[in-house]
Amino acid sequence: MAHGHTVDDYLEAIYFLAFPVGEYGPVAKARPAVAARVAELLGVSRASAGEMVKRLETDGLITRGPHKELVFTDEGRAAAERTIRRHRLIERLLTDFMGYTPAESHDQAELLSDTFTDEMIERMAERLGDPERCPHGWPIDPSVEQRESRELVAAAELAPGERATIVRVAEHDGALLHWCYDHGLEPGTTVEVESADPDSDQLVVMVEREERALDGKTAEGLFVRRLV
User: Fold this and answer.
1) Of 218, 220, 9, 7, nearest to 109 (Cα)?
2) In this predicted model, what pLDDT tens digit does every residue of 195-219 receive, in sequence order?
3) Rounded to whole angstroms, how far apart are CA atoms 101 and 97?
4) What are residue 207's DSSP bridge partners?
5) Whole-model pTM?
6) d(Cα 134, Cα 84) in Å, to the nearest integer?
7) Average pLDDT over the chain, rounded to an integer
8) ∠104-106-25 over CA atoms, to 5°?
């Protein structure tokens, strides 16, 4: 998200922080989206983020909650969900038709999102066969994502001996995506927890008979479904 920082960039960032997705865990650990955190996620100054947040408030896209958290209005939420859907469809275009890897598709979609009109996105969806998920396992339809999130946990919540299938890889962090794919941690992969060390914030999992040591950020960015 380091390019031009449009309104859509901010809506996407607030979505990741305001809804129980991304680094904030699928369900219970969502924390308030505040301007300082938005600035950090986008890599801009707090002053710049504050100015854009004021603009979004003036435009009726967000309001402030009792703890100064940023809360979408109905109009703002709809706009954010359109932005998210566009990004995920572009990722599928890049992987399905242009030969990009899933990790590469995230980086390129960030650059291309502002170049497609709504009409072009609908044609793209049709040509792609109305795919259900982006390359990183996230439902194209954000409403499906939010329902499905109730069934998932972050890998960080797994205990030693538990097995789970990776359903989604956090899509807001390009570096994290590349690392996960490079180490075989992708949607559909089964992992088994070997050990969990709360003191070092490290999780060791087995992936196809090989150990992978996950730091806290990575373990929070892998969303899994427990296997019984």
Assistant:
1) 9
2) 988 777 789 999 988 999 999 889 9
3) 11
4) 210
5) 0.84
6) 10
7) 87
8) 130
